[in-house]
Amino acid sequence: MNDIKIKARLFTVHDLEAGITITPNTDQAHYLLKVMRVQDSEQVVLFNGRDGEWLSAVRTISKKSCGLEIMEQLRPQIPESDLWLAFAPLKKSNTDFLVEKATELGVSRLLPVFTENTNTTRVKSERLAAIATEAAEQCDRMSVPEISRVQNLTDLITGWPAGRTLLVPDETGGGQSLKSVLETSIEDRDKKNPHGFLIGPEGGFAASELDALDKLPFVSRVGLGPRILRAETAALAALSCFQAVAGDWQQAPRFNNGYFFNARK
């Protein structure tokens, strides 16, 4: 079995196919040349969320740029879990942390939402997209989650797809066990709806918001155990439970200590 040492793994907007050469963007070129100090012919893995994952070789290095020649496909495109996370933005760096970890846990779409008790009014979508991209590169997933525009809770639930179950962790103790809800969903062959979570703000949902959520047929309140969790902890706990019970945690990782293990003889 052959093993390939790769220098970096990058997301690109370019189409990927054997024989073409692409130019990384300015930030990626700086990372490759100044941080990773790539040399000619060293190998970089590329993915774009559409064409699978490809091995490339560094070519035509200049002071501020380089080319990446596409060599061969390593993996065909593999879909992520169809899992959404709507969340009230948090103060300071906690939102960044949440986006990074949600990306690592396989979320396909991130939806920031303002609620009555949300205690921040700024959401920098470009920053969140950059954090999600870097997390996707590092964790070996083959796509970057979509970052939706920020919206208020009323707009979120009005536009929520009727066929997607919305699970709302309930700190008041009024929800069913999340594990039980997910196991029931798996056992019932007629319920193959995709899922999403709604994580409230640090101050919790207002009573009027909980009342509005209770009236929606696609919403289920769920419990996350006996302890009061911070918003970011609740999000990661819910996502981890989903992936363990109903998601993709049955699959094995592919990378080990920076080496790509090639199953071909």
Itemize the secondary structure elements and their pairings.
Blueprint: E1 2-5, E2 8-11, E3 21-22, H1 26-35, E4 43-47, E5 53-59, E6 67-75, E7 83-87, H2 94-104, E8 109-114, H3 125-139, E9 146-147, E10 151-152, H4 153-159, E11 165-169, E12 176-177, H5 178-187, E13 195-199, H6 207-214, E14 219-223, H7 231-245, E15 255-256, E16 259-262
Parallel strand pairs: 2-4, 7-8, 7-13, 8-9, 8-10, 11-13, 11-14, 12-14
Antiparallel strand pairs: 1-16, 3-6, 4-5, 5-6, 15-16
Question: Briefly, what is this?
Answer:
The protein has 265 residues and is α/β, with parallel strands linked by helices. Helix content is 29%, strand content 26%.
Give an overview in words.
This protein starts with a strand and ends with a strand. Helix content is about 30%, strand content about 25%. The longest helix is centred in the middle third of the chain and has 15 residues, at about 125-140. The chain is elongated and about 60 Å long. The protein folds into two domains: about 1-75, Ribosomal Protein L25, Chain P (Beta Barrel); about 85-245, SPOUT methyltransferase, trefoil knot domain (Alpha/beta knot), CATH 3.40.1280.10. The strands form three sheets. Strands 7, 8, 9, 10, 11, 12, 13 and 14 form an eight-stranded parallel beta sheet that branches. It has a five-stranded mixed beta sheet with strand order 2-4-5-6-3. Strands 1-16-15 form a three-stranded antiparallel beta sheet, with no helix packed on it. It is built from seven helices and 16 strands. The model is unreliable at about 260-265 (pLDDT under 50). About 30% of the residues are buried. The chain has about 260 residues and is an alpha/beta fold. Helix 2 runs parallel beside helix 3 (about 125-140), helix 2 (about 95-105) runs parallel beside helix 7 (about 230-245) and helix 5 (about 180-185) runs parallel beside helix 7.
